[in-house]
Task: structure prediction
Amino acid sequence: MAVHELNAEGLNCPLPILKAKKMLKGLAAGDVLKIRSTDPGSVADFSAFCTHTGNKLLSSSSEGDVYLFEIERV
Amino acid sequence: MSDDSTENAKSMSIIVTKGSLDWAYPPFILGTTAAAMDMKVTMFFTFYGLALLKKKLNLKFTTLGNPAMEMPMMGGHMAMPNLLSVMPGVGGAAGKMMKNLMKQKGVASIEDLREASVDLEIRMIACQMTLDLFEYTTDDMIDGIELGGAATYMEVASKSDINLFI
Result:
């Protein structure tokens, strides 16, 4: 299981989702993608994205103005 | 995409009828996001929406007849009176201002979203009738598009879970 990182800080909707999807596509099942975002809308969006695509949202948290997500590729 | 080939994958179609800078966003944002969520997406470009398929995009927007448009300015918001739009250079300046604002706020350009649409294998259909009407050929348009008419769209729409007209 490999951990990959995506820095989506400063990007607005729908770029964090599009960039995350692009990276997830290249990952093996079980790999984890850690994402950093500053778009407050991405909290609801990554949750919806994972619900719809079946990828696992392992965690969703924030650190100051930065939102952190961990998604496991199915 | 590797994981969207299941038979129960959702699908969406969008009729794209407008070609100004502001109206170009909703179809491309929703189309790319749906495709990123493993939906099968078809976009049908007709009338002014056809301009969004041209190789070289030169999108503009107008302040005319848009009372809801307020630009953030010096901590407040400024409405754009209709009268302003008839002054020479105002349209171009407003377009530049909007593009700068979008860049500053991390909003994708339409060029980027269109490229993402191609990467995400969105099916893009140009309306044959509109091409004829405005005297364009496929040479004026980006590669990878299809040509079709109302029946082509209806066939797609009848099988789609979501159908939007923008």
